[in-house]
Amino acid sequence: MPIDDFPFSDAPNAALIRLTDKFGYKSEEEFEKEDISFDEKIRRLRAALVYEEMSHLKQQIEAQGIEVCAVNEDTYIEHNKTYYYPYQVFLTDTGHYYSSKEELFFIPGYFRKDSRQGEEKTPIKQAEKLGARIQPLSSSDEQGIYFEGGDFLKAPDRALYFLGYGQRTEKKAYAVISQIIDEQVIPIQLLRKEFFHLDCCLTPLPNDVLLLYEGEYIRDKQARLLKNKQGLPLLIKHTQTISDYHRAYLRKLYDPEKIILLSTPEAIAYGANGLILKSNADSRYKMFVNGSSGATERESEFAVYDHFFSLSEKTRDAILSLTENRMDIIEVPYSSLHYAFGSVHCTIEEFYQTKS
């Protein structure tokens, strides 16, 4: 059925963030080493910049009247040495909060990559402190089901979720989540290894609008999209991000006029990795996305290519127009994590705060 037939459902209105100045570091010994090379100095500068940009994002979210809770930096001890989780800033992958009948739940992540296993332990403890009921996808005596929160996206104001599978999350997560959550879940098969989470190529927006990257589009000399017999835009070989079946399904779910197609430069600059939260202060949606505060960068024809911005002016205007003044776009410098395959949404866990 079309998306406007789905019932209303509250949207996330708070956030969790895990700040650390040790991004990319695996151990205390490695981080505290004094005699360092030039490359190591660059590495530490990058880690410091990640911390700076994340701290600024936290301030910007709070400035919009949205509460942000901090999750503790995580470590573990092995053979009397202290170790870090090098990618723990990507908090959204550690699980997903959802609200049902005024009760809060948390689905913990279960990581496929060895380097990320264990990141979910502290977020689970945090969820318990916040009063959430933990809802694992498998029992303790069963083989775990791979699931990462970056693959689970909610459509604003709708009782509807999208679940990406095929790269990090496995398909059988869909069947289990569909049984435990009382909202519709639509699976989306991910095909391309560079876009391994759904939040790298799809963003549901307010007013039943969809931001989407399907691959490198083929256009004619007038820059018009070329389409196949099924009416789907043609794509350059090996660039496709989601299956044809799900591309067609999305066009049945959404009004095609409300689907905004991202360009490849925008997708590579994480244009689909914006964070959507609803402010209790003014009841408006806020979209936080990478973008420089400098006007000169915006004027550059390479602004998106150079990751100064993740969205072109044309795309920003389309978002504001199609969401019909229901949402504000807040651009924050956030490109320091792009080389590590993440941006704004990857680092923020969406949360539900009781309205006062």
- The largest beta-sheet arranges its strands as 2-1-17
The fold-level CATH name is L-arginine/glycine Amidinotransferase, Chain A
The share of residues in helices is 10-25%
Profile the largest sheet. Answer: 3 strands, mixed
CATH architect. name? 5-stranded Propeller
Evaluate the radius of gyration.
Answer: 20 Å
Organism: Legionella quinlivanii
Pathway: Amino-acid degradation; L-arginine degradation via ADI pathway; carbamoyl phosphate from L-arginine: step 1/2
Enzyme class: hydrolase
EC number: 3.5.3.6
How would you explain this protein's 3D organization?
It is an enzyme of class 3 (hydrolase). Pathway: Amino-acid degradation; L-arginine degradation via ADI pathway; carbamoyl phosphate from L-arginine: step 1/2. The chain is an alpha/beta fold and 356 residues long. It has one domain (3-351): 5-stranded Propeller (L-arginine/glycine Amidinotransferase, Chain A), CATH 3.75.10.10. The protein is 23% helix and 21% strand. The protein has nine helices and 17 strands. The protein has a three-stranded mixed sheet. A three-stranded mixed sheet has the order 5-6-7, with helices on one face. A hairpin with a 6-residue loop joins strand 14 (275-278) and strand 15 (285-290). The longest helix has 26 residues, at 38-63. The model has no long low-confidence stretch (mean pLDDT 94).
